[in-house]
Structure formats: C-alpha cells, structure tokens
Amino acid sequence: MLDTNRAAIYCRLSKEDGNDESQSISNQKSFLEDYVKKQGWYLFDIYIDDGYSGTNFERPSFQRLISDIEYGKIDIVVTKDLSRLGRNYIQTGYYTEEYFPNKNVRYIAINDNFDTSKIDSNNFAPFKNIINEWYAKDISKKIRFTLDNMAKNGTPKRTVFPLFGYAFNEASERVIDSDTAPIVKLIFKKFIEMCSCSKVARWLKENNIKRPCYYNAIKYNYNKEKVLALSEEKLCSWRNDVIKDILTNIEYTGAYITAKSTSRNYKDKKRKKSNINRHIFYNRYPAIIDKFTFERIQNMLIKQRGGKVDINENLYKGLIRCADCESILRFEKRETKRKGVVKRYYCYKKNCKSFNTIQIKYLNEIVKINLLNLKNCILKKKKEFIEFINNFDTKGRYIKINLQDDLNKHIKRNNELDNYIQMLFEEKNKNNIPESTYEVMINKYKKEKEILKELIDSLKSRIEQEKLKFATSEKTKLIISILENINEDNVLDPRIIRSCIKSIYVKIGDEIKPKKYVYNIAIRYMYLDNEIKEFLENGDE
C-alpha cells in the first residue's frame, strides 16, 4: 500500500536573517525532524538552501523539492515558518494558496500555525507574507545604505579573488602580485607591437602563458577542481574579449572603481554592469601600467577596425581621417596593369563630396620627413623645449604630501559620521532615543558633513591640478624618450607611428599636373600636440 504521509522538510537561511542561532540550519533541521517523527510520518527527504535569499525562488534545493512534487513523490511539505518558504508575498502566496493545494500536497509552517489542510489556520497567512517581505525590504535597504557609503568612500572590499595582476594584503587593499602582474604588462606590451587582441591571444597561447582562471584556482581555490582538470592547451587558450577587458581596465593604472554593477531591486539578485553610480578613485593603488601607456592603448583600440590586413601593410589603420567629414579613411590594395600594386586610403562616405584620398607611398614620405624633422628640432634644443613645456602649462612638480594627508583625514571623519548616522537611525527605529534628540543629533552630523564635503571637493580639485602639472612633465620625458629612439630605418615602424601620432587629416589640394595633386596634411601628435607646435613656431622651425 502506498504511503500517503511522505513528508519533506525544507530549511533556508540567508544573510538577511542575521546571526540568530534559533534560525540556523542545524536548529531548523533538528526542529523539523522531531516534528515529523512525532506525527508518525515517513521522512522522504531533507531540502536545504543555505545562503539563499527568501525573495528569490530560484534556489537549487527548492527547485529539487518542486521537481519531486511534480513526480508525485511528496505528500507533505514542512517548514519552521512561512518566511523559510519565502519573503516575496506574491510568490509565497502562489505556492501556499494555489500550487500546493492543486498538487494535493499539504503544506505546514509550524511556528505560524499555518496548515493548508485546516482552512481556519490560513486567514492571516497573506498578512504574514506581506510582513515577511517588508522585513526583507527593510534589511535590503539597510545593507544597500551601508554598501553605497562604502562605495562613495572607496572602502576596500575583499572579493573571492582580486583583479588579475594584484593580490590582497591583510587590510583587503590591493598590492602588486609578482606572479601575475608581469603577464598584464606583457599583454599591454604585445598589443602595442601587434595592434591586435587576437594576435596577442595567439602569442600567449604559443608561449604557454596560462589564463587568469588558472591563477585564481591555485591561489584562491576558485573552481580549483574544474580548472585543474583542463588540458594544458585549454589553460593557455586566451579569448580576445579577455585581452580587451584587461587592456581597457583603468584600474591597472592604480585607480579603484566601486559600484561597478547594480540590481533593479532587492528581489532581483542578478547584477548588471553600470556606470551610473560608480565612483573612481585615481592613484589609490600601485600602478601596473603607467597612464601614458594606458592612454596610448585606448587610442589604438578606438581606431581599430576589423579586417585581415596586417598592420605593417595597413600602417595608418584608424589614424588617418578625411579633413572634411572627419571619418576614418578606408584602406584599399589593388593591382593595376600600368602601376602594379597600388595601396591607398580613401574617403568612402557617400555624403562627403571631397573624395579625399592619398597613396601610402606619398603618405610615408610626408610622415617620415615630419617625424625626423620633429626629432632634430626638439633634441637640438632639448633644454629649451623642457623649459618651454613647463612654462606653457605651469611648473611640473609632485603632489604635496600635506594635501593628501588633509584629504585622508577629512575622508576618515566623513566615514565616521556615516557610521554615526546609521547607528542613530537604527537606535531611533528601536525607540531607544527620543525623536527630539534624534533630530538634534542628525542635524548636527549633517551640517558637519556639508562642511566636510566642501573641504574634500576643494582638496581633490587642488590635488588633481598638481597631478596635471606632474603629468605634463612626465609626458615631456616620454616624448623625448620616443624621439631619441627614432632613426632613418625605424621611423615608419608601426610602434613608432602609434607612439608619436594621434591622427592624420588628409585633404586633396590643387591639381598641379594631370592626376597629380598637392596634399594638405595635418598631423596631430599623440602627446602635447598644441605645445609642440607652438614651440616649433616660436623657434621658427
């Protein structure tokens, strides 16, 4: 004879339930097992979701419970109370009012005296479900308030594993990882050489350099068993999008970004990338990549276009533009009977009537003369150039330490006030302090925060100005370093071109002979373009 008292007990616990020992999984399990035993029912199975929110019903053990109900294996479901089933009153109501009765499954929430087989016990269930959801919403609001404050203040947050290239110290701050940081540097270096994410990925594979997942597995035990079961080939198979993510991540310059993702509400546990509420703290950590290299890479990525033409052939890929419509010129290689192979750039935009075009051989001559001329002019008057650049903006110098110390002090006090406000809010909700005292204290803290905000904003602005001054000095050194390495043989090397030139604007001028034109070329340099041109003009070069 089929047993019609096959009972399933369901236990759930999440962070929203706090550290209350009475709600622990072990206590729930023991309590429910005793109850089923006293009723004389057969315990079919135990279903446990530890660490899952009650606002979301996509929990593994709960879904297994539903599957067993669908197969007719269960007659009774027992939980400690309604909130263990869920904290979303609409979905919880669906299961208690429709799903369980329609499947002929009896549902019991012991502490709430709820039993679907007893009509009178269910009168207050909808209100209980609403209260449970209110509780989840209130807890979510408090957690979000704390996390938002942490994000605004740049409080370090320890994740399962750190950003590739870094490790965590005891204070959960990022420090450079000696094993993985060299790989990050190598990726940036190889991209400058190859100008292609797919070529960098191929090179890494050919040189047996392992992916971030391998280091996350051996260092932080993340998916360790699964990752270490992969073949050597798969461990070294880098994806193009992973390379691009590394190349475009400003955090490798020492910045720290908070609130990078968000969810729609407390019921939705899926998080999406978002730039709306994020906060960027520059120069927070040791940089793996300097800012100029990072900017240079971003410039190269923006100008990248698809295609199978090698960068050595399509030398000005993404750099060359139409002077009239400013669109990037398209590369073309074709063979003619009279001239043989012809390589050129041309404007393909239908709404541009200028038809600006130039053959690569003529462009190469112009660029070569320009860069060698630039080298001679600047290196010949190196001292004057450095002095001119420093005076052009303002004197280059490092950030004053006392400004940073003052800023850190004010930020620390601001964090303390946030904690006081949160504690005050909680004490008020518990009715531990009178309303009048709460108003006086909250107004006092708010006024102090307003003053601190002005001081912090002012100091940040002054520090950024100092950084800009220092950055200009660093760019000057970088330009000189690049020019010192230029010679007749390497001046048209892709790395040199992309280190020196930000963009080239082409316009066809007058026709001097049949099908022979004057080209009006404007070259914009990668760094300090206006300053360099003014220096050259002042020197009558």
Write the layout of secondary structure elements.
Layout lengths: L5 E8 L11 H15 L2 E9 L9 H11 L5 E4 L2 H4 L3 H14 L3 E4 L4 E2 L9 H29 L12 E3 L5 E3 L4 H14 L2 H10 L5 H9 L3 H5 L3 H4 L4 H8 L8 E3 L2 E2 L9 E2 L5 E3 L9 H13 L16 E3 L7 E7 L3 E7 L10 E3 H21 L1 H11 L8 H29 L5 H50 L9 H7 E13 L2 E10 L3 H10 L3
Parallel strand pairs: 1-2, 1-3, 3-4, 12-16
Antiparallel strand pairs: 4-5, 6-7, 8-11, 9-10, 13-14, 14-15, 16-17
Helix pairs in contact: 4-5, 5-15, 6-7, 7-11, 14-16, 15-16
Verbal overview:
The protein contains 18 helices and 17 strands. The protein has 541 residues and is α/β, with parallel strands linked by helices. A hairpin with a 5-residue loop joins β6 (166-168) and β7 (174-176). It has helices at residues 25-39, 60-70, 82-85, 89-102, 125-153, 181-194, 197-206, 212-220, 224-228, 232-235, 240-247, 291-303, 360-380, 382-392, 401-429, 435-484, 494-500, 529-538; strands at 6-13, 42-50, 76-79, 106-109, 114-115, 166-168, 174-176, 256-258, 261-262, 272-273, 279-281, 320-322, 330-336, 340-346, 357-359, 501-513, 516-525. α6 (181-194) crosses α7 (197-206), α7 crosses α11 (240-247) and α14 runs antiparallel to α16. Strands 2-1-3-4-5 form a five-stranded mixed beta sheet, sandwiched between helices.
Protein structure class: alpha/beta
Radius of gyration, Cα only, in angstroms? Answer: 33 Å
Silhouette: elongated
Can you tell me the residue ranges where pLDDT is under 50 for at least 5 consecutive residues? 393-401
Rounded mean pLDDT score = 81
Give the termini distance in whole angstroms.
104 Å
| Sheet with the most strands: spatial strand order | 2-1-3-4-5
Report the β-strand fraction as a percent range.
15-25%
Report the helical percentage: 40-55%
Helix count, DSSP H or I runs of 4 or more residues? 18
